[in-house]
């Protein structure tokens, strides 16, 4: 985690970028509405800036949040200008999608596309210039050492070297390591003397191989002196989980996350899921009518199929689908088990005889999945996430690591869905794709999966 100072710097940077985006939209309007008409008086007039305020209300607060989710504010010194530009373009696509959805569904008009394009060009250029200026400032601070905070490094020698290797240049620009104390070899009095000598306000502990009693004694010395003690939380080695801190009942807790942490991006994902699902439900009502009539005419029985599926952390929920199989499909399950083409707990067979003719059509086009939009609106599912499995299949999972796919909400579509799922017959390969999604989750990844789902469905490669 960033220190409080770095957090404040990040927030100030994001506020600056919000101001840049607001100015860019105003300046784009000025260029098109006033300056352009001086040189091209035959062009159509553009409405007053007040007609574009709703776009500003979307872009200014959410722009920096989306850019942060794309990693625009991370690894400033080591990334190339091309990578920064790509992150800006990716963020711009997400913002443009949001603006476009609001224009379509809320009927809020974009009065001039030229204004928006000019604003995007101006804003992107100014954001890159701001980033370049910030990078130069950090380089100057690294070179001069001026304004850097004196800090002591404490722990075992090997641990201290490892910690220094992991501290990025951006953070090294803020601190100056004025001394190293090996508390496995030196007495605590040496730490106290060093704090006095260098007038430090912070001590960094690299204590992976240091006894807790030594750490406690050293921290108490810092406490007595009124000096902050920062302990690197790497004394537990984990392959996947990322450590953070939280508070429970007034006590500090070290938390290991192996899934995306609670954040504005996740909150934004949940809001977008419900809005998009509701919009898709309304737009797809003619297809619902087509499916309902087709099922009624093709097979006696209910239109909808409901089944208990495992949601986040395995919590059961009732998932909705259009019925594509005969009503006795569940009873025939045991008879067909020998034909299962999937390794592991999942049951899949090609050309399932339980599927009736019209059901095969709606399965091939994934129309049978449309009622799951109700599950998304209810909050049991997401638009993108690992596909929910029946509870009885989840209970058959033998490898505990495979249950990590349950650590996020299940989704309508996923990496497995767009990877030609008919060609994947190994459950471990399926789970590997789900875990890849979880470990690399971002709003941009969700957007890419959603965009790739459409051609996958049209090709029929996303079929059951």
TL;DR?
With 464 residues, the protein is an alpha/beta fold. It is 53% helix and 12% strand.
Would you kindly provide a written description of the structure presented here, covering whatever features stand out?
The chain has helices at 4-39, 53-69, 81-105, 113-144, 157-166, 169-172, 188-198, 212-225, 264-283, 285-298, 329-336, 357-364, 372-378, 391-394, 415-418, 427-439, 443-459; strands at residues 149-155, 175-181, 202-206, 228-231, 242-248, 251-257, 304-310, 316-322, 382-384, 411-413. By secondary structure, it is of the alpha/beta class. It has three domains: 4-143, no CATH class; 148-235, Rossmann fold, CATH 3.40.50; 264-459, no CATH class. The radius of gyration is 28 Å and the shape is flat.
In total, the number of domains comes to 3
Provide the spatial order of strands within the biggest beta sheet: 2-1-3-4
Poorly predicted regions? none
Element pattern in H and E: HHHHEHHEHEHEEEHHEEHHHEHEHHH
Rg estimate, integer Å:
28 Å
Shape: flat
> How far apart are the termini?
43 Å
